Amino acid sequence: MKRTNPDASGNDGRSLFGRMFGGKRSRDTSGDAVPDDSEGAAPLVALEVLFGTQTGNAGNLAQDVADAASAKRFAPTVQALDDVSMESLAQMDRAIFVVSTFGDGEMPDNAQLFWEDLTAESAPRLEKLTYGVLALGDTDHDEFCNAGRLLDERLEELGARRLVARVDCDVDYDKPAAAWIAATLPLMATVGENASDAPGGGE
Asked: By CB distance 3.0 to 4.6 Å, which of 50, 52, 66, 84 could disulfide with 99?
């Protein structure tokens, strides 16, 4: 990835949430974005935001996904991929994966153990999981967004349901990432309501 510091790219230092989603949100004492509570509001929807990063961009973007999700009455949990066990993955209902590609099309450092487990013969079936993949890469490299592509394909092989088509973002990822997030979150909110009618993504 060329851009190691998102704030060195000519923006005003705010997060993607701040630049593309308005940036005004309440925070609890833990620092996680939380929606305003109102009497009679619908219960929060659990959402896993899982990231693999080499330079930090994917981790920052995963937090932006969580901030945007919190504003839409999700209860997001952000984790690095290597912190996710196969047992916990198999129990997840909804997940957004934010993954960068490192070197010659490889998984980033904090996703390699997860990838080894996911590609093992002992990997669990994932029929319970509905997911989307936001991939980061650099078109100057031959294996553009290869890690995101491999992850997307393997999740589908294990029975997970792709909710929306993967988005492959170049180094200037703000606008395509924001558009994908804005389109994906409302669909994630419907998962489990009418599973047979929910839209699926394709390549």
From this structure: 52
